[in-house]
Design goal:
By secondary structure, the protein is mainly α. It is about 55% helix and about 5% strand. It is built from five helices and two strands; from the N terminus they run H-E-E-H-H-H-H. Helix 2 (about 50-75) crosses helix 5 (about 115-135).
Length: about 140
């Protein structure tokens, strides 16, 4: 349960005039948390629908990005057997955080997919998003 989902439950309760936040479902997403099993859910207040939709769109985009990033990192790392292989395969923005800095790069970034045109195209498309999430520290 994300902090934002709980915040939406609180906003919703206040909009309906309730003191305690009641969990509610909207478009298949649960906002708030259950205190006990079989607790009933409320409905979102019309005043927060636009904000909920924006939140859901952001979450879906992040979920899609996470899946695409995981797939490309899997392609990059599947043929890596040494720390040097990993260092050379990963983009610099990730290397700076997770690999020892005293290991110099000996091959080009993404060396293991250089012969796969489709994979390289995917890598080039996803790289800006990897850099964005690493800069935001949202990718672990």
């Amino acid at each position: 349960m994300s902090l934002q989902a709980i915040e939406f439950a609180i906003k919703n309760a206040r909009a309906w005039g309730h003191a305690d936040p009641m969990p509610f479902l909207y478009k298949g997403y649960l906002f708030g948390s259950y205190k006990q099993k079989n607790e009933r859910t409320g409905s979102p207040h019309p005043n927060i629908i636009a904000e909920l939709l924006a939140h859901i769109l952001r979450k879906k985009k992040m979920d899609e990005d996470k899946k695409a990033i995981s797939q490309i990192l899997g392609l990059l790392l599947i043929h890596c057997f040494t720390l040097q292989d990993i260092r050379d395969a990963l983009p610099e923005c990730i290397v700076r955080i997770i690999v020892r800095r005293d290991i110099p790069r000996t091959r080009p970034e993404a060396w293991c997919i250089q012969d796969n045109e489709r994979a390289m195209r995917s890598y080039q498309q996803i790289l800006p998003r990897i850099e964005f999430y690493m800069a935001s520290q949202l990718l672990y």
